Amino acid sequence: MAQSRALLLIALVLAVPAGARLPDLANSLLPLARDWVAPAQANVSVVEDGEESSALLEAIRVRQTELSGWQEALSEREQAVESAQAQLEARLSELAAAEERLAQTLARVDVGAEDDIARLTAVFENMKADTSAALFEQMEPRFAAGFLGRMQPEAAADILSALPTESAYAISVVLAGRNAGAGQ
């Protein structure tokens, strides 16, 4: 019961604009306010002298001022959130564009690197086996195996046969083991 009275009081306070009717409203709501604040004094009559109604009116004005301040602060926070969200969306858009440019650059680099390796592989295939073997002997076995794995089998065989046995064996081990773990 007290809660419904309090809700009624709040609804009336918020619904009635500040103006000439506020003192009358305060006077008429005083019994409800007393019942709500002090339930033990439920049968208190309205004070005729207006001091208590003036105090209630002042309390309502203070509360209305506080509510206005809170509403203004809430509005400012809402604007700040909207601004931050707009900035975040702009940054995400910039990031997506930068990521796309990076992907395009990496694709061009990959294509360029692949073209360079294919060209160098063709050069090694067209060299005499003894000359290529001298170069492959200087390479790390994994690096040499990468080229030999791309070559035509005949050209790769000629180069491997021209290499010293230890180098040919090391490169063969790398070639044989390249795909050993692929099925796992």
TrEMBL record:
Pfam families: MgtE_N. This is Magnesium transporter MgtE intracellular domain-containing protein. Residues 67-108 form a coiled coil. The keyword Coiled coil applies. It comes from Pontivivens insulae. Residues 119-168 form the Magnesium transporter MgtE intracellular domain. Keywords: Coiled coil.
